[in-house]
Design a protein that fits this description.
Layout (H helix, E strand, L loop, with lengths): L18 H5 L11 H17 L6 H5 L6 H10 L1 H23 L5 H11 L5 H35 L1
């Protein structure tokens, strides 16, 4: 017969855990990132975006916070006011990059590179090429359909 080994660790019976711990969500209790907290962070983010002397970045905003920039993006998915504040920051970011580069306070190449990576800017050549390919493709499709119609008409008139 095999003996079972007893654990040296004492288990706390479920009844001994205080009631308030049973009501908490998650293993560490309620989250401190409540909607009110996120509202205050959204206000702070807007203030930072409007008062930043140089170009505002989310990474700079979160460097002294207890959360990182990725967590801020995660909060924004479920909190509309914070999402709006991030969009306003991105607008201020693009605006300041353009203005500072036009005033020769920032290298224009660096500003353009940053705008391409952060604000989604693209070269006009790329967009024109895509539009031209679409146009040429639709013209070819139209020409093929016209040829098919002409072949059908020529068969019906000869036959």
């Amino acid at each position: 017969m095999v003996k079972k080994l007893k654990s040296k660790r004492k288990r706390i019976p479920y009844k001994r855990i205080p009631e308030e711990l049973h009501k908490r969500p998650g293993p560490k209790g309620p989250s401190k990132y409540t909607p009110e907290y996120l509202d205050r962070e959204a206000d702070a983010l807007l203030e930072y975006a409007n008062n930043c002397e140089m170009v505002p970045f989310i990474w700079e905003f979160t460097k002294d916070k207890e959360y990182c920039s990725e967590q801020l993006w995660g909060f924004a998915k479920s909190h509309e006011r914070l999402s709006h504040a991030i969009k306003k920051l991105k607008d201020a970011q693009a605006y300041k990059l353009v203005i500072l580069s036009l005033a020769n306070k920032l290298n224009a190449a660096v500003a353009i590179f940053t705008l391409k990576n952060v604000a989604g800017w693209r070269d006009a050549k790329e967009e024109h090429k895509n539009i031209q390919q679409t146009f040429v493709g639709s013209e070819i499709t139209k020409a093929i359909k016209d040829l098919e119609k002409n072949q059908v008409k020529s068969k019906s008139t000869t036959g």
